[in-house]
Amino acid sequence: MTLTGRLLSIGTSLVVCSLLHVQPAFSQSSATARVSDATSLPASAQAQISAVLGRDQRAYHAAPQPRGFRFENPSNRLTTDCTAERVRLHVVTAEWGLKLQGYGYVDELAVTKPVAPLATANRVEYRRGALNEWYANGPLGLEQGFDLEQPPGKSHGEPLTLALAVSGNMLASAAGRRAIPAGGRPYRPASNADSF
Predict the structure, then answer these.
(1) Contact 179, 96 (CB under 8 A)
(2) pTM exceeding the 0.90 threshold for the entire prediction
């Protein structure tokens, strides 16, 4: 199958949800409580359900801020700031920053420059030509994804690479699908979905 004329989607389904899920210390609405039943579904189904519910519930919509947008995620006690420079997540006292630095194949990475984020309802996008980085907020957490309209050149058999810089007082673990605040205890993943 060729990528020509097709949309290549590189999603990190429920990356932040799985990464930073915190058991709420307060009662949830019945709609959010029913969503917790969805965690037995495949990660891709969970992501779609959460995104649709988030789109329909104002509590998950992006709010304009002076330098970009902010998501509040009441069911996970998560706040996300989306600026041209980076995405920064705050949960309890921990924070984690993420910045796309480039994409391409091994030694031929296209460097990305800061772009202003755009928001519609519970979705924030960073449009960088053929690459669209996006975040969708919903009751199960924050999903991150990348849509690529066309290959960024010849692959020469090499895998597509996304170069991401991380910052903050959390350590991400691909194997354990968790984030650990420096000096703290790990947050429990929301599901068994692969996080990275």
Answers:
(1) yes
(2) no
